[in-house]
Amino acid sequence: MNKEIHQRSQRKNEHVKHAMHQESTEVVSDFDLITLLHHSLPGLNVDEVDLSTTMAGFDVPVPLYINAMTGGSEWTKSINEKLASVAAAADIPMAVGSMHAAIRHAELAGTYRVVREANPDGLLFANVGADVSLEGAQQAVEIIRADALQIHLNAPQELIMPEGDRDFKSWRQNIERILKHVDVPVIVKEVGFGMSRASLQTLKDLGVRHVDISGKGGTNFARIENARRKSQDMAYLGDWGISTVRALLESQSLQSDMSVMASGGILTPLDAMKCLALGARSVGMSRTLLKSVEEEGIEATIEHVKDFHDQMKRIAVMINARTVGDVRKSPIVLDPELLSWMTQRQLV
Ligand code: FNR
């Protein structure tokens, strides 16, 4: 194996290893600063609840997805295969991790293609960084016969890595070009740093219609990149970014123009319901599902996802909501800290 391929595979393995062992540093999650309003007289039964939704233009029965993580090494190939089996059995979409390794080195394409083999009819999303060429993006879609393409934005991660990118001026143009020429829907996503209203407005002006605000509060790439090296150069940036809840608040005035997905630190069905109440159309999870397939196996993870969805439905009854549309309309109460954010950010 040549040295560059070896280094890439190594990096993929390190990301997975560090993510799996990352403990939350949040004392209070922003999800705790939101209350869904209890309803004493629900007028429906659990079987009537239908949380089907649309995601990047596709109708999906369950408002959950496995978000982008990995590929590019033998270990991560096996993880992709397991996650794709979970996605197939639980009938949820799945994204693979960044595919630059496969674009550069054809011999690594199989570590991603395995998801299509394990889930031939599922909704699968390719994933590239915003520095990718149009040809690279098209290749990524072809490798897994993707139904949609995620473009990830990870500027802080690059800037923290000593070997990372320092110039981001091509990103907007690349995104515009990909939107014009790639023939599947494009989702622009963060990687756990969240998006502000200004970032979302910039994406909207570029023509982006689907975003995943992937906020702070879960997997933390500032901490992962610092942990991967001995000299923790920029360890003080561990709290950088906008939380998932705050990014959803930032997105609210743009939700009629863009479909917004939420990810970043979603641990419980209640967190997911709060995302829907804040306007997300669907909710993504990465790290918890990675840990689950690796530590508990495929069958347990399928059960976990099904149970998660079932519990979301039961919570829907507690707020008297039958559909995702009803959840979006249901009342929420924000703690003063979030209200202060909204006031300072002029979101109210
Ligand atoms: C990620 N994430 C990610 N995102 C992306 O767009 N491309 C990628 O290659 C990766 N790689 C990756 C590796 C690992 C091990 C993890 C855990 C995550 C980010 C991911 O899609 C998501 O945005 C964040 O992880 C936030 O969600 P969780 O993990 O808090 O549920």
UniProtKB/TrEMBL annotation:
Names of the cofactor(s): FMN; Mg(2+); NADPH
Reaction catalyzed: isopentenyl diphosphate = dimethylallyl diphosphate
Protein name: Isopentenyl-diphosphate delta-isomerase
Gene3D superfamilies tied to this protein: Aldolase class I
Binding residues annotated for Mg(2+), in chain numbering: E158
One example GO MF annotation: isopentenyl-diphosphate delta-isomerase activity
Subcellular location as annotated: Cytoplasm
Oligomer and partners: Homooctamer. Dimer of tetramers.
This protein's record includes keyword Ligase: no
Pfam families: FMN_dh
HAMAP family, A to Z: Idi_2
Sequence similarity: Belongs to the IPP isomerase type 2 family.
Binding site for substrate: R11, K12, S98, M99, H100, Q157
FMN-dependent dehydrogenase domain ranges (all copies): 170-316
Record flagged with keyword Transit peptide: no
Residues bound to FMN: A68, M69, T70, S98, N127, K189, S214, T219, S286, R287
UniProt cross-references to InterPro entries, sorted A to Z: Aldolase_TIM, FMN-dep_DH, IPdP_isomerase
Organism whose genome encodes this protein: Salinicoccus halitifaciens
Keywords tagged on the record: Cytoplasm, Flavoprotein, FMN, Isomerase, Isoprene biosynthesis, Magnesium, Metal-binding, NADP
